[in-house]
Write a structure and sequence with these properties.
Elements (H helix, E strand, L loop, with lengths): L5 H9 L4 H7 L7 E3 L8 H4 L7 H14 L1 E2 L2 H10 L7 E2 L1 E3 L5 H13 L3 E5 L11 H12 L2 H15 L6 H9 L7 H9 L4 H8 L5 H9 L3 E4 L12 H19 L5 E3 L9 H9 L5 E4 L11 E3 L1 E2 L7 H18 L14
Parallel strand pairs: 1-4, 1-10, 2-3, 4-5, 5-6, 7-8, 8-9
Helix pairs in contact: 1-15, 2-15, 7-9, 7-10
Length: about 350
């Protein structure tokens, strides 16, 4: 039996309404859509993490969004949140997380053709394909073990590794998916057991942007920002670890690419991140603006921007944007639209 929450049900009812009415009803002026990658091909290192859109779907999304919203650049947005400068009515800023090479190969040409500015957020440890993110290793491993001959050959060793008797493929997938950032070395051990070479994959597939590609993107008018060093969930880190991840990654970008701005997007989510982090990074001017993944909702500061995922649920923008506006309206009605942060707020 499928159980549909009241929030989802209410949102679908509202999403059938005209978008102009929903904008007014939800008291929403601006939206901030984000993607990870766009490709017409199967991408093994993300295939078991999320569903990406193809180029036709992406273009249709952009056509819908730009019909109803005015694209603005990152610098305009920073001036708006920090200095109160005006934005066009119903503005939108487009962002992309994780720094995949498709940002350069596929996405940038489409955006340039349509005249849409965007910001690409990169985890600096992965620039030039020096390392693989642990999440990508999860996806690659699961795909590797889809080959039943491989699973059959190494099943006994996997049973021993997970300390389970006669482990099956479904259980193995589940356990691999559950591996978190602080246990990521386990992924290398499983790869070793199953004779999977992550370094060979990295060398052959080159999944991430290179320094040269980043410089070309900047020269073409795009902006870049930090997405941490190596993609941990910030709520699982101490304040000191959060600050190290943020400072080292954003300073690397500012210094290496001579950036005049400091933008940061949280890997995973900013849910559970305490106010003392924001007090530190905004108070020291380490960052000027941050981006979360919480949908259309209010937060502790105008400098904390929450974004709409354009990949989940798997809908086109013509359905997804009204749905998100409807969710905003529902949250307002029941009083749950503001992100909760503990501790004292020392910034505006």
């Amino acid at each position: 039996m499928v159980i549909i929450s009241k929030q989802i049900l209410s949102s679908y009812v509202f999403s059938s309404l005209p978008i102009s009415f929903l904008l007014s009803l939800s008291r929403t002026r601006n939206i901030f859509p984000y993607y990870h990658l766009i490709s017409d091909d199967k991408v093994i290192h993300t295939h078991h993490l999320f569903r990406h859109k193809n180029t036709d779907e992406f273009k249709k999304d952009l056509q819908f969004i730009t019909k109803h919203f005015t694209p603005v650049g990152l610098l305009e947005l920073i001036a708006f949140v920090n200095q109160g400068r005006g934005l066009p009515m119903n503005a939108m800023h487009l962002t992309f997380d994780d720094g995949y090479r498709e940002n350069y190969d596929v996405i940038a040409p489409i955006l340039l053709e349509m005249g849409i500015p965007a910001t690409f957020f990169v985890s600096t440890d992965f620039i030039d394909n020096k390392k693989l993110c642990f999440l990508n290793k999860i996806s690659i491993l699961i795909e590797h073990l889809e080959d039943l001959d491989i699973f059959s050959e190494y099943g006994n060793e996997l049973s021993s590794f997970f300390k389970l008797r006669n482990i099956d493929i479904e259980t193995t997938r589940k356990l691999i998916r559950e591996i978190e950032y602080f246990d990521k070395e386990k992924l290398n051990e499983i790869a070793s057991i199953t004779r999977l070479n992550f370094e060979e994959y990295l060398e052959e597939m080159q999944p991430f942007l290179t320094e040269k590609q980043l410089r070309i993107l900047i020269s073409r008018g795009f902006t870049i920002g930090s997405h941490s060093l190596n993609h941990p969930r910030y709520s699982s880190l101490s304040l000191e670890e959060q600050l190290i991840q943020t400072k080292m990654s954003i300073n690397h970008l500012v210094n290496n690419y001579q950036l005049k701005y400091r933008a940061f997007a949280f890997p995973h989510s900013d849910e559970g991140v305490r106010l003392d982090f924001f007090n530190k990074v905004f108070g020291s001017e380490l960052i000027e603006i941050s981006f979360g993944t919480g949908g259309i909702r209010d937060d502790c500061s105008s400098r904390v921007i929450q974004r709409i995922s354009m990949e989940k649920p798997a809908l086109g923008a013509n359905r997804l944007v009204p749905l998100q506006l409807a969710r905003r309206t529902y949250r307002d009605l029941v009083g749950i639209n503001r992100a909760l942060r503990d501790q004292r707020n020392d910034f505006q």
